Known about the structure:
Domain Thioredoxin-like fold: 59-141
Helix content: 40-55%
Shape: globular
Protein name: Thioredoxin-like fold domain-containing protein
Signal peptide: 1-30
Radius of gyration: 21 Å
CATH architecture: 3-Layer(aba) Sandwich
CATH class: Alpha Beta
Largest sheet: 4 strands, mixed
CATH topology: Glutaredoxin
Keywords: Signal
Strand order of the largest sheet: 4-3-7-8
Number of helices: 8
Amino acid sequence: xxxxxxxxxSILSICAxxxxxxxxxxxxxxxxxxxxxxxxxxxxxLTFRDIAEDIEAANAAGKRLAxxxxxxxxxxxxxxxxxxxxxPEVADYIKANFMVVQYNMFGxxxxxxxxxxxLTEKSAVRKWGYVFTPTVVFLxxxxxxGKSVAQAAVATMPGxxxxxxxxxxxxxxxxxxxxxxxxxxxxxxxxxEQRRKASAKTN
Length: 203
């Protein structure tokens, strides 16, 4: 016959369960599908796609500007939204440190490049030479003079990677690793080793 729990033990067990639920990781909000066939995060920024203005807006908020290029039916874009951006650690870091603006690789919305040229999304993508989706482009924290987005970008991440690589790229940009002698690959390797050591200590 199973042992009966005392009223006090039962109350303590319920409290422990409630606390566990309260402090359990909360999944990031699920992406929705837009009319353009692209997955949407509710924390993506909607702007007039004037890149210089967006850099200034991000800077005023204490963040960096990242542009993400996607296309309808892209399975790797779906993975980015449903796996990477659904991870609270990834989503929370990006939301806290970056202003993200989504671009449709074949879209017709008007874009104003950093050099002042006005063109459509799809024309801008051709001008900048981006061919993969998703592609994440990181801009400097100040508006450059006479450069296009492709020329001004401090880093570009083509394709969808694993969580560690994806998040480390955002961290490397935020920490301005591109201004140091530590190439991203070396930074990423160092972060992998740090995580390995931290995991070994807790096991």
